[in-house]
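Record type: ASSEMBLY
Status: queued
Input:
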Amino acid sequence: MLKSNRNRFIQASRQLLSIRPKHSSFRPVITRLQHTKVSSSSNSSSSEERPGLFSPFFSPTAEEQAEEKARRHYPRLTAYDTANCKSPPTCNKMLVRDFIDDSLYNPNYGYFSKQAVIFSPETDFDFNRMRDHLEFMNVLGQLYKDIEGEADEVDEVARQVWHTPTELFKPWYGYAIAKYLVSEYKLNLFPHKDLIIYEMGAGNGTLMMNILDYIQQNEPAVYKRTQYNIIEISGKLAERQAERQDVREAKDQHTCVKIINKSIFDWDIHVPDQCFFLGMEVIDNFAHDLIRYDLETLKPYQALVSTDAKGEYTEVYEPVGSDALINRYLAMRDQTRYRSPVVSKHLWLKCLQSLPLAPNMTSAEFIPTKLFMLLETLKTHFPQHRLVLSDFSSLPDSVDGVDAPVVQTRYRGTMVPCSTYMVQPGWFDIFFPTNFELLRDLYLLVCRGSRAGNDKTVKVLTHREFCERYGDVERTATRSGENPMLMYYENMKMIIT
Ligand SMILES: C[S@@+](CC[C@H](N)C(=O)[O-])C[C@H]1O[C@@H](n2cnc3c(N)ncnc32)[C@H](O)[C@@H]1O
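Status: finished
Output:
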């Protein structure tokens, strides 16, 4: 009982919730898998197709054949190409990461361009006065209900509500991060260098305020040398972050803060200084690509989402090779200890092939291409950074596949989970778990140029381990001794470097 409650909490803890306008209807989603051989470049419109996954026994209808013919001439678009579209375009093909990026981040209809609310209790919880973690859950449940009520009133807006450890355990979670930063800074840089912090995706600005408050109150000498920079994709949230300072009396404002309203993927400034780079609950929405392997040859194929004139989606496949980012990712991953679970069971794959109605490709594997791009950005533009990233290491109710995302929306108070990421752009949250152990190995190769295992300064900790080490476990304990900051978010991990 306790366990299932907790799991439900974890599940609810990071779900973006949204409400569809009353009069719009869900668009049916058609998903088929096609194993496509593209002969030359990625833009080639003459693709030589193999039978679809289950097609040897079902010949395509005339309509499907016509659709198939039309699809070959669809232009191939990226999320940059669609950024100016006012509504999701049809008759095109996109790599899966571009399709997901467009669904989430398109400035006009993307999920994030709708009003985002990051759940933030007005007053901090007084854990010491609570009976136990169930009381905390009940208080939280009530507050959350109130927010949902408010959201329901804003019926025409697909409103999103995030819960994050930063907000639920404020100021203690921020203080824990601050304690870690200050101890590392004092060990290595103080008093010769400034404490320079970059925070990617700062939400309401709560972590920034809590970190700076902690340093100001506990480490005045360090505070004098602190610079805090926020890199925030959302214009609305960047404004909110600035307002956090404005509502304070002038003497309590942190004047060392600079807010830069842009995506980390558009970052082009060289930062040669030694600095800390933070990102709490940002990477789970970084788009992934999808690959499958040919069952016979085990060669990887990359998926594209083809959208037809009716706005229906079909997954089509082409051999890996035409996309530079996927190529770089797979080449780098080959240098790690990681072996894809979808190809590691050779015997099983052989058996599978001999079955009637056998598929011609393995099951799906989602690969974190945009996260890999973040590592490249860190290497190029922040060569002397130290990283603090936290996010989900696993997620319940994901769609099928390795490292597959959770795809969901909320409709009139009810969660609507989906079994595919190919859903109408803008109405669904799509978020991924992170394989932190693989991330660590990739980080070492990209940012440190060293092989996995050689550098003990790059660590993966669970949320609990980090909070036990740096958090104030007394102030976050309830009267029964239970500590919600340690108990919840057990599916979160952190990489610190
Ligand atoms: C789930 S919220 C987390 C907010 C905050 N870090 C916290 O833990 O409460 C994700 C934040 O990342 C921002 N974000 C998402 N993608 C981004 C990107 N590519 N570049 C910069 N910020 C991004 C969002 O606008 C939002 O502020």
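Annotation: Residues 118, 162, 164, 166-167, 200-203, 207, 231-234, 237, 263-265, 280-282, 285 surround S-adenosylmethionine (CB under 6 Å).
Annotation: The first helix runs from residue 2 to 12.
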